[in-house]
Structure formats: structure tokens, C-alpha cells
Amino acid sequence: MSAYSDEALIDRENQVLFRELPLAIGHASQLPRPGDFITHDASGVPLLVVRRDDGGVDAFINVCRHRGTRVEAAPHGNKRAFSCPYHGWTYGKRGQLVTIPHERGFACVDKTSRGLVRVAAGEASGIVFVRPAPLAEGEDAALDARAWLGPLVEDLEGFGVSSSVLYGARSVDKALSWKLAIDIFLETYHLRPTHKDTIYPMFFDNLGLVDRVGPHLRNVFPKRTINQLAAEPESSWTLRAHANVLFHLFPNTLVLVQPDHTAVLHVWPNGATRATVASYLLVPEPPASDKARGYWDANAAVLYGATEEDFTMGESIQRGLSSGANREVVFGAFEHALGHFHAEVRRHTHARSV
To answer: pTM of the entire structure?
Structure first.
């Protein structure tokens, strides 16, 4: 029970899972050109991520080294330099301190050591990862995101995640633990009662496959149409046409592969019993017409209609947990992916507390 409500536990998770591990925070298509940037705050650390001239990404804590003001306020854009709005200290794209107005008043300041504080950043399969903790002295700023994802890199690239473009970003706050929000997506036991009038008719009742891949999970949820493949040559089989493939990228990102696009959800803790869910579609190319935009908007409506049904149940669970009716929750054999997820949470937080 404490996993979903204990304040001390969420503090520990914030300090370990959301500071020390690689976190997926966006997509490469948000940073197509040198100088493109995004800001990100949901991890609890204000971040500034910038596309370098050589095509890589740099990430910094979005805080001025003078007196701590937020440097960049815009959510995204393109700039050659970043200037603090308070006193005008200015930083280059690589985070270096370039200008101190009235510099004679700071004779003891070594500009070479007062650049924006770096954090490790990298990309894999088109996903931008950041580890929000300040780099230790001598630590490499290049985050090996491919190593973190392991075999899932090939899966995600095979489904076109790296070549897709972001469409229709949104963010919602929900009254449930971030872990409860992840739980919702890791089983199909709930499909028939929860989604009986929406997406359930497309799927089998309580049928899914789960693979553990390091700390991550690969889930395959077959659709009823998969039976048609028995009459088709194996060379023509396409999994994504007949199943939803859901990747859980530990700790807090869900990548849902659908027939012609992908949906991504990042679940961020907002205290012990609330979460912010940032989501978007990844589509093959930028929609160039009202018809194309209408098509993707309709797909998003189906997704968000189903997830709203899920979150309604999750918020009900969160309220029920505080009632005292249960001393524990029960995961059945069909819900073993949830057990794997919670075991990974405990393994990482415990390993760094002893």
C-alpha cells in the first residue's frame, strides 16, 4: 500500500529514479536544427536541451550561475545564445558563459568555470534521454542511451520511432500515484469491463505477452484480427497491424506502437498521490493538410478516450487505497508485468540506499 502513497518513498524515488537514471523526455524531431532547444521541468529539475552543430544534444540545468534565475522561459525555439532575464548573463549554445554585463564588478569570477551546469544527455531510437543529476567532475556528458535501452533499440527503430515526427503534444494532471498510472497499462485483465464499449471489441479478453528486457518491458496485446494470419503466408505477416506493442521504458515512459503511428506517454510524479502525464503521437511525416491533421486528431481522440477510462479507474483505486479497506493490493498471474515493474523500482531504490 505504501508504494502508492508514502511521502518518504516518493522522495526516495525522486532522488534515485528521477535523478540518477536516464529519463526519456522528448523526441529528436523536436530538435531538427542546430540551435533548436526544448525546456523541461517535469522531472523536478529545470532542464535546457540544445541541438549541437555536430548533430548531438547537450543538456544543462536551466539556472543562471549568478543568482539562480531560470535562464530560458520558452518551451522550445531556436537560439544562438541564452540570456538570463534578471541581469543579462549570457550563455552560448554549449552552455559556456559568454557575457557578464559590467564585468569589472565580478573580477574574481572565472567565466570558464561558471557555464551552465551540465547533465548527461543522449539519444537512441529517436528518443531524447537526460540524466538530471549534475555531472561529477570528469564525468562524460554523453549519455549512452543505446546501452540503456539494449535490445529495444532495434525494436523501436524497426517500428519507425526514430524517423517519426512529434504531433499533438498535451499534458494532464491526474489524482493518482505515478506507479499506479504505469500499472494501468501493463495488463489486459481490465480490458473487457473497463473498455467494453470502446476498444475492447478489437482485442481478446485478458490476453497479452510480456518480455523482460533489463529493467524495461515489452508487451504484445494481440487483436482479434491476428487469427486471419493463419491463412496468410508468413512472409506477409505484420505484427503492428494485428497487435498493439507496448514498451515500458523504465522508469516512467510508455511507447505504444499502433498500425501506422506510435503514441508516447511520460508519467511524472507530482507528489506521492498525483501524477502528470505528458503525451503525444509520433507520425510518419508532418501533416500537410487539414485532412491529414483530422486523421491524426481522430487517432489521438481514440487513444485519449481509452486512457481517460483507464485513469478514471486509477483515480478510483487511489481514493480506495486511503480508505483502509485493504492492507495490500493483489497482483494475479495475469498481472505479472506489474510485479516486474515494482520489483525494479524496489531494486533500484534499495541498491542506492545501502
So the answer is: 0.96
Contact (CB, 8 A) for 5 and 273:
yes
Question: Looking at residue 352, what is its pLDDT?
Answer: 57
Q: How far is CA 215 from CA 43, 130, 158, 186, 337, in A?
A: 19, 17, 21, 14, 11
Alpha helix positions (H), 114-214? 145-149, 152-158, 178-183, 191-194
Residue listed under C-alpha cell 482485442: 203
Rg of the chain over CA atoms, in angstroms? 22
Give residue 1's pLDDT. 76
Give me the domains of the chain, ranges plus CATH numbers: 21-149 (2.102.10.10), 155-351 (3.90.380.10)
Q: Cα(186)–Cα(218) distance, rounded to whole angstroms?
A: 10
Measured CA to CA, the distance from residue 32 to residue 28 in angstroms comes to 7
**Largest distance between two CA atoms of the chain:** 80
Q: Are 60 and 118 in contact (CB under 8 A)?
A: yes
> What would the grid cell of residue 102 be?
559590467
For residues 56 and 88, what is the distance between their CA atoms, to the nearest angstrom? 27
Q: Amino acid identity, residue 296?
A: W
Q: With 0-12 CB in 10 A as exposed, 13-18 as middle and 19+ as buried, what is 136?
A: exposed
Residues of the chain with pLDDT under 70: 351-354
- The confidence score (pLDDT) of residue 350 equals 87
Cell digits of residue 236 = 506477409
Signed CA dihedral, 314, 270, 305, 167: sign only: negative
Report pLDDT for 351: 65
CA distance linking residue 113 with residue 280, whole number of Å:
38
